[in-house]
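Progress narrative, Year 2. Work on Small ribosomal subunit protein uS5m from Chrysoperla nipponensis advanced from sequence curation to structure prediction during this period.
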Amino acid sequence: MATKILKACHLITKCAQNLPKNYLLSPTGNTLILKNCTRNTTSFFNKLPAEQIWKGVTSVSNAGKKRGRGKGSSKKVAKNLNRGQVIGVGKANILWPGLSAPIMRGRELVQQQKLPTDPDYENRLIKMRDEMGTFRRIKLSPIERGWSGAKLPGRSIGPPDPIGEDTFEGFDTKALEMKIVFNMKGNFGRKRRLSVLAVTGNGNGVAGFALGKAVDTKAAIRKAKNRAGQKLMFINIYKNHTVYHDFFTQFGKTKIFVSKKPEGHGLICHRAIKTICEVVGIKDLYAKVEGSTNLQHVVKAFFLGLLKQKTHQEIAEEKRLHLVEFKKENDYYPEIVASPSTECRKIDEIPTDEVLDFTQYCLDNRIVLKKKKLPPAYTKQPSWQIYLKKQEYIRNKPMVRQNIMAEYGELRSFLTDQYPECRPFRPEVESKETTEEELNQ
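Result:
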């Protein structure tokens, strides 16, 4: 009896091994149970979208960010397989009325038909999916570029938006600064925003600047541009190309010395000051910035200096004197630029300690310290004197004549010994012989 039971168990085991994977043997061994082929298994891979899954893999915690982790991790972008797919258009090029074609074409009813296959259909889909997520840098012409390539500072962002019937025709706005600022709140935490500093003007003496902050870049640019258009101010320009006079201006720790320059000199100054001058309409200027180079302080200090400058007529009215200009191109001939409306003061009415120098008066009784350039260190070496002696025959012709006269007693060349006639012409002076009678007389 025991051997029969053992043989039956071996037979059942062999049968169970030969069963398909979709079937199970019941515990009694006399029935087969069909397994459920489709399982509704769920996990975070099919619950969450691709962006959140990649974020969980590649992101770093806040503590890790503070320690400098995760700087090199790049975000993975999943391909959107639905991109390029059109309902009714597929690998088999079939015309479906109502999907890929109209139902009626004139009075004719469109029938379903198979069109010739398109061999480039799959290649176009693959190329379209590969281009997804790739960042393309905007190519700008050299004129449209800012201070640092394709970044915003220094670039034109267009005129301010019109306000009702008032339109800003002829205005141009340029961004001076764009940076990220943070503000810590007790209930909201650290709030991140973008700060944009912009200046706008019409190139004819009307300009303004403003600061705009927003979470979005476009919103911050729009705020700064429109606020600058609401804070316009008029600036006097001398002969539509430069300032009226030299001036000194200061804001905080930033000091700026501005010099008036003739036409054609150009703008030799800080890049922010140069951008402001282009917007205002100033073409010739020299400015030296000392102290802090904080961009907002530089802009505020320069605008303060432009607003404080005085016209020639205002200076003549304050001094009650004629304003006279001396130009090098006019051979320093005096030219009256402005005269007071009232009678001029006489010499007796002018105090002895009054400042009459134009530049010193415009600088509020200041004098700009111009440091003398020190000579190079190599000029103190003996070899420099030897070099000067060797170059003397080439550079200084009067010195050459003097050395020849001192050495030979006459002007001569290397051909004088061979050709005696190679001497400079000297007119003979008639010598008068003095006689004894003339001396006695």
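Residues 379 and 387 are 10 Å apart (CA to CA). The longest strand covers residues 172-185.
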